[in-house]
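Justification of resources, computational component.

The compute hours requested in this renewal are based largely on the per-chain cost of generating structure records like the one below. Each record pairs the submitted sequence with a full structure-token output. That output is archived, and it is also reused by downstream analysis tasks.
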Amino acid sequence: MMLFAQAVSPLLCTLGAIQVMGLAAAGISRLAEGTRHERVCQWLCFMAILVVGGMCGYTLRIGPDSCAACAVTLTLMTLIAIVDFRD
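The structure output for this chain reads:
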């Protein structure tokens, strides 16, 4: 049995983990709306947006694919935090 192993860059893994944590922070911020943890979660979401936004600038050096992924994550985080579908 042959094992097909590829080298994965730790930098790309870190960028992916930050993006997942950013999306989670935005979701948690939305879920905490109306609870006593709302303010803390909003600050957490704001900090995560700053980190992912800074990461977008950093990934310009890595390549267009990484930068596009960061931009999509930042857009999704903003939409999760702003858009309200309740009537």
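The two ends are 57 Å apart (CA to CA). The first helix runs from residue 10 to 31.
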